[in-house]
Amino acid sequence: MLSKKTQYALQALSYMAGEKSDAPILIAEIAQEKNIPLKQIAQRAKVKLSLADYKKRCTQTTKAGSLMSRMCHLELAIIHKLNVKLGDVIMYVNNGTKASQGDVQKVNKLKKGWTTEQLQYHFDVYGVYPKESDTSMIQVNSYMLNTNDIENNPDMKGEYNVPRAIATFNKRIEPLLIVFKDEVRDNLLVTDPEQRGFFTTDQCRLTNGLPFKEGDQDSIDDLLTVTEKEVEFWNNINVSPDYIYDLASDGYEVFI
Q: What global pTM score does this model have?
């Protein structure tokens, strides 16, 4: 059973194999070509509340005084008037247009009023325009998928939030940049293929000992110093923390 990340990587490799150019290919290019199967980026959410309980929850507040957060899969169930039951699984994909647009979000009314797009959205979803007294609305930036369609056609393509997909990938890949120097770290990840950078073999040489910021990387002393918790662990299993030295070959001190 391959993980989602592995399947995602294989899909990217398949895309690159089909390209005739020898030039490097960015994940941003793959994302913008809408070449990522929806199954790889779709969210799967299990129904854990009845719609009645969810609607009641939406009127409740947190300890900080703000309204409880909305759940995209249940908002979609309400919009589509689904008769969902506890345990049902709803699949959906974010099809917003900005990286900052979550699956579902609260949109506040501007001082000059609602925008044409916001009014149209409210009418398309709820069949009416927002009331004059409304100061905010809930906007769902996602659409629901038919689970049978996805299972029968795992390579099915479709619309999704490209900027958000790129931002998510970049965030996941960023820790791996620790093996490069700053000139590569600072310029390798982009959101627009037109901003791609090209690097020489020398620039791409792997390095070590260069943490992203002070304190991110342990020193050799930190690695070799036994902490109190480690001593407590060894004592609990009746083993000396220094037992490894008893197993070492004679003369090991010379190499330390």
A: 0.68
